[in-house]
Structures are given as structure tokens and as C-alpha cells.
Predict the structure.
Amino acid sequence: MATLKEKFYAKVAPMKERVQKLSKEFGDVNVSSVNVGQVVGGARDIISMLWDVSLLDKFEGIRFRGFSIPELREKLPKAPGGTEPLPEGIFHLLLLGELPTAEDCAAITEEWQKRSVLPQYLLDTMNAVAKDTHPMTQFSLAILQLQRESEFARRYKEKMPKSQYWDATYEDVMNLIAKLPNIAAYIYRRSYKGGKHIAPNLKLDWGANLAHMLGVTDDPAFKELMRLYLCIHSDHEGGNVSAHTTHLVGSALSDAYYSLSAGMDGLAGPLHGLANQEVLRWIQELVKDLGGVPTKEQLEKYMWDTLNGGRVIPGYGHAVLRKTDPRYVAQREFALKHMPDYDLFKVVSMVYEVAPDVLTKHGKTKNPWPNVDAHSGVLLYYYGAVEYDFYTVFFGVSRALGVLAQLVWDRALGLPIERPKSVTTEWLENFIKEHPPAAK
Ligand code: CMX
């Protein structure tokens, strides 16, 4: 059987030819125009980046290499006796654009297990960090510390030719992804469980092993949750902050460690990945303030208080999506199957009934529907992972799959250093003076 690396290499030349043809023959065809609102307003909708591993439709949601989440839950290989897809499978799909067999997934599990050991100098560094440092800071620091291992950096120093960049990046990516569950579990056990660590189980798949090393429950459904969670958070096309940052930093030929660490710093923002912890914090406060599961009327008032206090309803709204996020739906289905009577799930469901209407009346957000972060916390909480400051680390472990699969492609295709144009406020004002809009 060809290895994952051999299969990837076989795809590079034809893909490179397609991209070069587009650039050479159609390089001056416009695919997007830019207005002043987009320059000032966070570059919304400007097409300015190549990202092959996933594509987002504002109404349908994410497709990973053309497959929707319900399709992938059906088609990707499962663990023996399991019903949720294996993250190994989604990585195979994202990297190669092909659905894997169970055998392909087993080979990736084995490869990652071999590369998963954390070096002692990393553990020493992690042990030196103050325990109350936010888990995302610890996660990003650990990834950055591992940069010492970078094959790309080592070979670049040894005059590696451009044609080898993908190979060194592939090695870095596989070494790094393999270690992420161990890093995450180490942070968790050190921060919240008195430093009593749990040895990895080399027989388990990547997601199940993370569940095992966290040690919050023996319930096999938690392993299933981890597998599902790690699949659905893996990618959301290239323009979101964590993906774009990883790609941008990588474009300077900073290696996978630098790139992912930077991407994780972006994920740690409350408008992005940190929203999953904020949702749980907001729900916990709400239940405490209202003395238990609220009525709809109480919840509605609580939401207005949040909005009138100048704060956002965490887990709602999206820069691109304009309907309920299918990642939310997948998690809701999981909850309906495994914890339909759980009080916190009832609150999350009630928020789903009330929030879109309140946000629509509030009249600011372009999308009153829930995003991925509105649901994940309650599932984790149910199984005993109650330390919600840690939740974004789960997101980060998963997000690595997509952004690093794309990073290997970035180097294989020889994509250049990223350098969009910025302008000053004065430049924009002068531009408007010179190009006054037609009177309405
Ligand atoms: N609650 C209250 N107000 C909201 C809101 C929400 N959930 N979502 C958007 N708005 C507000 C914005 O703050 C903005 O207000 P101002 O005009 O005062 O600046 C206005 O509505 C318009 O925003 P928008 O164009 O609809 O949304 P953006 O593209 O600017 O921002 C997002 C998108 C996700 C940052 C925003 O919806 C938000 O803050 N949501 C809450 C945080 C959250 O859940 N983030 C996670 C997103 C998913 C992820 O990346 O993990």
C-alpha cells in the first residue's frame, strides 16, 4: 500500500500545473472587486486567497473537499463499534481530496502514535509555566517551543531546494499533529488535576487517545464526542482568523510550528475560538443568576440585558454564515442522542429558540443564528470536562488538521509570500474626492 506521503506526492505535479495554468493564462481576470466598506470593514468577501481543503457557503455551511458534515458522518471510517467519523479520516480527505478506507485511517493512527512522544525539554518548559496561565497560552507556547524540532528550519539552513519544501513541511506537520493530543492532555492534567498525568494508550485512535489522556470519564461516548468534535472543527475555509494567520505566517517560510502557534493565538480571541468558553461562562452565569433552568421570558430578558450592556451573545452570529451552522446541528444531534434530558442542554436548546428572534429585533447582527461555539461547551461539560477555560484548546487540536493540511499544499504549490495592499484614511478620502459617487 502506498504511504500517505507517496499518495500526496503523486498529486503535486498535476495540481501545480492546474494552479500555474490559472495564474499564467488567466492571471488578469477579475474574480472580486473591493469597495471602501470592505477596506475599512475587515476585508469581508474579498476573494484573495487559494485554499483547497474546504469551502464555505453562507447558507449551506462548510464542505470539506466537497463533502458536507452529514455526508462525512456517514462516509468516513469509524472506530470499531463507533458511529462518529475518525479524525484520521478527515485529515486524509483534507490532504488528498479522497475518502480514506479504514486501512488508510489505521495507517495514519500508527504513524501519529510513532511520532507522538513529547521530548523532555518540552515537558520542562511546560512545567515552568505558571499553572494559572490560560490553557491557550500554554498550548501556543508548547507548539512554539517544539519549533526546535523543525525539519523545515533545519533543512532550509542546509540549503534545501524549493522542490523539497513540501517534504520538510509534511514531516513537520505529521510530527506536530501527532503530539497535539499529548500536549493538550498534559496542559489539562497539569492545570486542573494536580499534575497527575495519564500515559497514552498506543492502541487508541488519535481522538480516543485524547479522551483517554484527559481522564474525565470512562464513558465510551466521550471518545465518540472527541472524534466528532475533532472532525467538525478542523477547517472552515481560509479566511477565518486561525486559518488565515497560519497561512500568512507560513507564507514567509516560517515553518509549521511558527505558523500553527500564531494561528492558535488568533483562535484564542473571544470573537473566534474562545467563544466556546464564553458560551459556557454566559450560560453558567445565567443559570446562577436566574436560579436554575430559566423560563423563555426570563431568558429573553437576560439576553436583552446582555445586549444592552454592550456585550455580544456568544456563539451567535458569523462573519460569513447566514443560517444555523451545520457544525451546531451535528452537535445538537449528538446531544439529542446522548443527553436529551440534561438541564444545560435544555438551556442551550432554549437559547436556540429565543436568541435568533432577539438578535433580529436588536437589528445589528447580519446573522442571528448559532455558530459552532454555541453548542460545544455543554457536551464537554456533560462528560466532566467542566473547566471551560480549556475548551478552545480542543478547538485548536482540531483546527490544526485543516490549516496544516493546507500548509503542506502551500509549500507544494510554491505559493508566494502574502502581501496585500493597505492604504491610509487620507488615501481613501482623496480617492473619494477624485472619484465622487454618482448622486442617488
Ligand atoms: N451578539 C450581539 N451583537 C452581535 C452579535 C452577537 N452574537 N453578532 C454580531 N453582532 C453585532 C456586531 O458586534 C456588530 O456590531 P457593531 O456594528 O456595533 O460593531 C454588528 O452586529 C454587525 O456584525 P456582523 O457583521 O453581523 O458580524 P461580524 O462579521 O462583524 O462579526 C462575529 C462576526 C462572529 C465576530 C460576531 O457575530 C460575534 O461577535 N459573535 C459572538 C462571538 C462568537 O460567537 N464568535 C465565534 C464565531 C465562530 C468562530 O470563529 O469560532
Observations:
- The domain at 275-382 is CATH 1.10.230.10 (Cytochrome p450-Terp; domain 2).
- The first strand starts at residue 54 and ends at 57.
- The pocket of carboxymethyldethia coenzyme *A is lined by residues 240, 271-273, 275, 307, 312-319, 364-367, 371-373 (CB under 6 Å).
